Amino acid sequence: MGGGGSALRVCADHRGGINWLSLSPDGQRLLTGSEDGTARLWSTADGQCCALLQGHESYVTFCHLEDEAAFTCSADHTIRRWDVLTGQCLQVYRGHTSIVNRILVANNQLFSSSYDRTARVWSVDEGQMCREFRGHRNCVLTVAYSAPWDLPGAPCMEEAVAGGLLVTGSTDGTAKVWQVASGCCHQTLRGHTGAVLCLVLDTPGHTAFTGSTDATIRAWDILSGEQLRVFREHQGSVICLEREGSGGFRAGPAADPPCSSSQLVNRLVYSGSADRTVKCWLADTGERVRTFTAHRRSVSALKYHAGTLFTGSGDACARAFDAQSGELRRVFRGHAFIINCLQVHGQVLYTASHDGALRLWDVRGLRGAPPPMRSLSRLFSNKGCRRTAPAPPAPRSWAFPAERK
Q1: φ and ψ at residue 364, rounded to 5 degrees
Q2: Distance of alpha carbon 110 from alpha carbon 188, whole angstroms
Q3: More confident residue, 180 or 204
Q4: Residue 398 has pLDDT above 80, yes or no
Q5: What mean pLDDT comes out for the span 113-136?
Q6: Of 5, 53, 396, 402, which is the most exposed, with the fewest CB atoms less than 10 Å away?
Q7: What pLDDT digit, counting tens, does each position of 167-180 carry?
Q8: Average pLDDT over residues 324-339
Q9: What is the pTM of this model?
Q10: pLDDT, tens digit, 9 for 90 and up, residues 67-91
Q11: Tell me, what DSSP letter sits at residue 380?
């Protein structure tokens, strides 16, 4: 049932759990954000740490990496922009009044969501808030953006979508669609009976998929607000969502925000759940295609790459499944605690965990061939990473800790 994966083990200098991992568009760098209040840049060429990003006054909740700039957000209520070559902080974005949960950069704009019940959009270069989106009754967990060129050009819609649409998910059980240009709420998506934990967009189809603690996934038309279908079969909270051909997104410390303009390949959506399974669904009908089992705890992260579905779990293992057959191809063991994020670049899988380690794994030979006899790997070690530690708190992603001022 799947051979063991050989590891290129990177023990980072982080002295706290890694909440998020972001890959630059050019694939040259990785960015990790940690409970220790720092972020680190890593080279994908050799696994070496390129820069230490220091300045936040509390833990880093999320990070986003562009080719020339890195962005981090924190429980200190701020967002920071960093130079990827020097590690220098270029800008501090202030205005949120509580923990900043999520950020995404699109169309030269910076979007953020917070425990203060708002989402905001900022000028990337000037550091000024351009718009505040206020209306949720509880914290805003997840955000996604649909650019204006991905939306219909009907005359009645031109003004509404001129600046694109922002979609937010909240612990109040709703998702909201916002007009970025005006800041007005375009639609409120009501139907979930629990917190909205994760969200992905199929932008050309102007469809949003939301996952919730009510154990369902729902599909919505973001222009009309109509609920299109409900995906029911999970027996626990839906923690993460992934669509083929794009990054997944979850409420936890999941791949970068899904603002790709590509259509759903084969119209498939994957969902990871607290019921220890991943399910694959036909996006257009809500029909379940297959179920991926073998996880011993909740499924906390998903990544689809080149016909392989990678999963991260609370059982501290990552797994590789053949996406078409559902067959378990490989298990990657070595982390001590929950895996919060996955990325794949070239022939390497990157996993970030609440144990504070970033690990690199050889993924050659997954398409039906046996695992390689010889590892790609080198071992990078340092004083800051411990193999054992007291059990950490539950991940801040979907456990919803009490808000800290």
Answers
A1: -65, 150
A2: 22
A3: 180
A4: no
A5: 96
A6: 402
A7: 999 999 999 999 99
A8: 95
A9: 0.86
A10: 999 999 999 999 999 999 999 999 9
A11: B
Residues 318/349, Cβ–Cβ less than 8 Å: yes
As a dihedral over the C-alpha atoms of residue 100, residue 356, residue 87, residue 45, rounded to 10 degrees, the angle is -120
Question: What Å distances lie between residue 297 and 2, 234, 350, CA to CA?
Answer: 18, 14, 20
Question: Contact 143/160 with Cβ under 8 angstroms?
Answer: no
* Alpha helices per DSSP H over 122-212: 155-158
Instruction: Report residue 194 as tokens.
Output: 């629990």
Question: Is residue 178 within 8 Å of 169, Cβ to Cβ?
Answer: no
- Is residue 201 classed as helix, strand or coil in its secondary structure? strand
Task: Pull the structure tokens for residue 7.
Answer: 């590891």
- Amino acid of residue 293: T
Q: Helices (DSSP H) in 150-302: which residue ranges?
A: 155-158
Tell me the per-residue pLDDT of 206-228, one tens digit each, with 9 for 90 and over: 999 999 999 999 999 999 999 99
Q: Cα separation of 212 and 197, whole Å?
A: 5
One-letter amino acid for residue 134 of the chain: R
29-34 and 18-23 beta bridge pairing: antiparallel
Q: How far is CA 247 from CA 40, 189, 201, 240, 317, in A?
A: 21, 23, 10, 11, 20
Amino acid present at 302: L
Q: Which residues contact 55 (CB under 8 A, 6 or more apart)?
A: 80, 89, 92
* Dihedral sign, Cα of residue 324, residue 240, residue 121, residue 135: positive
**Contact by Cβ (8 Å): 253, 19:** yes
Q: What is the DSSP letter of 273?
A: E
Distance between CA atoms of 360 and 343, rounded to whole angstroms?
Answer: 10
Which residue from 388, 102, 137, 44 is spatially nearest to 250, judged by alpha carbons? 102
